[in-house]
Amino acid sequence: MKKILFFAMLVFATGLLFSCTSDDPDNGGQGGGPSGGTGSLPYEGQTYKTVKIGTQTWMAENLNYAPSSGTFISCDEYDCATYGRLYDWATAMAFPSSCNESSCSGQIQSKHKGICPSGWHIPSNDDWEVLINQVGGYETAGKHLKSRSSWEPYEGIENLDTYGFSALP
User: Fold this and answer.
1) Could you tell me the pTM of the whole model?
2) Contact 122, 114 (CB under 8 A)
């Protein structure tokens, strides 16, 4: 149940908000501390924060790229800058709009680039598992990965953002 709730946080209506990940430690995230460090990644005219957690480097912001084709929801400047863009599955995967999860699932590669920058890929379930285990498991992942701000306060729930991942609601 916890696994389903964690992944459900990433899905909104029929769209996806997501960041990209890389197994290459040179893709941002240099330094020390509990996160292994932070960095930045220029992509399509924007610069994204990155964070190294364990052996993975993650974008610490949702992707806000407006591809030349595909379906994404345009948003006002504040919402896009803060939360990223909302994509349909085919656009996020960089497939033709006629594709859906069933008809094109055979084309998904193990490190599927989709609309992520070169050297980066859309996080798989395995990528999320590695991240969650690295930050202490399902019992503690939320408090360590959530941004300190923007969340409604709930008694007994902490938002520590220990690793600089800065997950937003």
Assistant:
1) 0.80
2) yes
